[in-house]
Amino acid sequence: MARRPQLLRAVANALQQHRWLERFRRILVGVSGGPDSVALLLALRELTQGSSTELIVAHLHHGIRGAAADSDARWVRDLARRLGLRCTVGRAHVPAQAQREGRSLEEAARRARLAFLARCARRYAADAVALAHTADDQAETVLMRLLHGAGLEGLAGMGLETRIGSLTILRPFLGVRRAQIEQWLRTIGQDWRMDTSNRELRWLRNRIRHRVLPYLTRQLRRDIVAALARSASRLSADEELLAAYAQREWRRRQGVEGSLLTRNWARVPVALQRRVVQLWLLHAGLNPGDAPSFRLVESVRDLAAGRTPGPVHLSPNWEVVLQEGRLRLRRRTRRVQTWKPTPVQCPGQTEVPEAGYRLTMESTHGWQPVNEPGPGTCPTEAWVRRPSPNERHWVLRPWRAGDRYQPLGAPGRMKVSDIFINRKVARSIRVKWPILTCNGEIVWLPGHRIADAWKVPSPTAPSLHLRLEPLSLATSSRRTDRRR
Predict the structure, then answer these.
(1) Final residue of a structural domain among 171, 198, 219
(2) Rounded to a whole number, what is the distance in angstroms from the first to the last CA of the chain?
(3) How many domains in the chain?
(4) Of 32, 102, 294, 403, which is most buried by a Cβ count within 10 Å?
(5) Residue 445 is assigned to a structural domain of this protein
(6) What is the pTM of this model?
(7) What is the C-alpha to C-alpha distance for residues 414 and 390, in angstroms, rounded to an integer?
């Protein structure tokens, strides 16, 4: 008997070592039509012949590539029919979802795929979902996470078998290179679909795939993909050990009514503290599907150690407090007093005594370079283009949850709350921080950038000079002027 190709041996070993065919009677296979997912489907089809495990093909149309994506969906349906497999095709509107949620297109597409696969798994009572992530994907993921400052859990990369929410994810190709897959498909005469968006360098993963990894390979004369994959494998084993210790420590510290005991907290290693806090917050279920941010975990950790008085705000409705040696979740009832939206004189000066700010708008030409102090910091200034005759309803108002706009130079709309969080603006400041609008659209987030649509078109174009300052400073300036 001819020896199986290395690609098939890798999948067969995963099926056997992890007893996937014994444990899972129905497996959903995510198939985009690209070479990796097509090869995975064919490999699983061959290796599950004669077993009781059923394969079901799942394909998501992302609503991005128009007619090309329509053609991909038909192609995947035809492939499933030739293999005698059931197939389900879903459709999402990822660009609209990305804009609505203030996320990148990549992140919105990832979330849409997971949501689609979870729905399909429930619909067909599938026990697991098989995805075609390769060793190359693993290397790209590790490098991306490293650039974002990930810890051990992130640098461990993707696992051969992991849980994401309610889904059990299988990745039989994690030890297989992309070149091996394409070579095997050519050998057996199987074609595949080409997604041109995989070449677009505006996406970070594509830049890493087509520019960064090849550059590192040439410069260092080493197989960088293999090295990163090996590192992820080793770190995964370390993470597995730490996760087991964290689970044990978390169970030991569970208190009444879902509280977390903080006795002898300083004796617990920092790595375990972070994992215990994360487990506790995830178990609370306040943010399903989203792991707590590093900044939030650190705030709760500091609260447990008594380094900050608290409370730590988790959401508009929930906070963490330290009471009698226990961390507890508590509904937020205290309301921060704010102020009412105020019509603005344009040009002119507008004072908002309730908020403690004065806004000055002066007609001028061009702009000057601005050193943005950051939202929450005063005084601050900016230049915007001169408004048109129908752009005359100017309002200074407090920030509202859900506010979004496109800052100057940004690729798309962003949540103002995300800007506050990234710039570490305290919630007590951000709930009262002013925003300048015109006809209901955000023009300027003081301390940060103006809206891209309001940039001054040229150095000599008519413009408005905006300056926001505390009323105390404005009053002091007026007194100085009178003395002169």
Answers:
(1) 219
(2) 101
(3) 3
(4) 32
(5) yes
(6) 0.64
(7) 26
